[in-house]
Design a protein that fits this description.
The chain is α+β, with helices and mostly antiparallel strands. It has 10 helices and 20 strands. The protein has 2 domains: 2-75 and 144-214 and 305-369, FAD/NAD(P)-binding domain (3-Layer(bba) Sandwich), CATH 3.50.50; 85-138 and 216-303, 2-Layer Sandwich (D-Amino Acid Oxidase, Chain A, domain 2).
Length: 371
């Protein structure tokens, strides 16, 4: 008998498993032959408070402590490094920039509105004729995604948690007050299940006889182009219209179309036309004159119908807990939501650090889809 089974080996699954491991036996099931194979392994993550919905923003605040000071044994190097985030707007999009500034102020983000001239001083490669202004969040930082994922794995293993690779879940059945989970090679009995299966979250729920949430995976393409050491100090530059983004990555630039195209759960492949459109937009907005691509990939960002996180016990299925719908906030909020879902699974009150950060479990509860 296992106390807790976590389905999914991405950042959501390992964060939940790491937080549950001190409280009982944990088995994490990953269908692929390696962890973080899908979305987590393809993420260009930034810790930025001024991003996401009302459920994710407080969880970002609550995650800061772990990201800045993980357990000494869990990380070999800092998980956060300085970067900054700069939202840029064309003259016709300046109203959207003002809206973003208001949202940031409401969520406690420390950001500054910049004139076109100030944007040019910060990122001289921008074309001034396409600039209406900018919004700069200096405290935004790059996240070492692989390091963070590994930190959770180390915590999990330190407390005796088990990781089962190449273990796709084939069936889930209610057994008394618990669950029977079947994979091709084993059967596991558990008191509680945490569904952290990302784009496949609804499929896992259906296996358990739980009504799906209505999750929608969305394609997001990224690619690397030649850069320069002159760009190393640039912040991440994001079009306020979500037309593109780019940021330094060593001596390269990581670029994206910032697209959100509905897709079924799968292992998506990049398309030449998406990369070409992103290059066209970035070249129009900057003097980079991108002509070649070093590498490219596509991942899935999965959203709930209201585009906020789904965390907690399904009111129709005691012992079945959702941890899905992270969209583009899943990396930076992972320490917070891992602690939140663990407290719910073990039946404890909301941890004080989450409460002080303004986390409200009702906002992210799956009950909002069951009325």
């Amino acid at each position: 008998m296992t106390d807790f089974v976590v389905i999914g080996g991405g950042i959501a699954g390992v964060s939940a498993a790491a937080n549950l491991a001190p409280h009982g036996s944990v088995a994490l099931l990953e269908s692929e032959r390696s962890l973080a194979f899908h979305t987590t392994g393809r993420s260009a993550a930034l810790f930025i408070v001024n991003y996401g919905g009302p459920g994710s923003r407080p969880l970002a605040h609550a995650s800061r402590g772990f990201l800045e000071n993980p357990p000494e044994y869990a990380a070999d190097s800092p998980l956060l490094t300085g970067r900054g985030a700069l939202w840029v707007a064309r003259p016709e999009d300046i109203g959207e920039l003002a809206r973003l500034a208001r949202e940031g102020a409401e969520s406690g983000a420390d950001s500054d509105e910049l004139s076109p001239e100030e944007v040019m001083r910060l990122v001289p490669i921008m074309r001034p004729e396409h600039l209406g202004g900018g919004l700069y969040e200096e405290t935004a930082r790059d996240i070492d995604v692989a390091g963070l994922h590994q930190a959770f794995v180390r915590v999990l293993r330190r407390h005796g948690g088990e990781i089962h690779l190449d273990a796709p879940v084939k069936a889930i059945e209610r057994k008394g007050s618990g669950w029977l989970i079947e994979t091709p090679n084993q059967s596991l009995h558990a008191d509680a299940i945490v569904n952290a299966a990302g784009a496949w979250g609804d499929e896992v729920a259906s296996l358990a006889g739980v009504v799906p949430i209505g999750l929608q995976p969305m394609r997001r393409t990224a690619f690397m182009v030649p850069g320069s050491s002159d760009f190393e100090s640039f912040p991440m530059v994001v079009s306020v219209g979500h037309d593109y983004y780019f940021r330094p990555d060593g001596v390269q630039l990581l670029c994206s179309l910032s697209e959100e195209e509905p897709c079924h759960p799968c292992d998506p492949k990049p398309r030449m036309e998406d990369v070409a459109l992103a290059i066209e937009r970035i070249n129009e907005a900057t003097t980079l004159d991108i002509r070649s691509v070093n590498s490219q990939w596509t991942g899935l960002r999965t959203f709930a119908p209201d585009r906020d996180l789904v965390i907690g016990e399904d009111p129709t299925a005691p012992g079945f807990f959702w941890l899905v719908g992270q969209g583009g906030t899943g990396i930076m909020t992972s320490p917070g939501y891992g602690k939140l879902v663990a407290s719910q699974v073990i039946g404890e009150d909301l941890p004080e650090d989450l409460r002080s950060a303004g986390v409200n479990p009702d906002i992210t509860s799956p009950a909002r889809f069951r009325s």
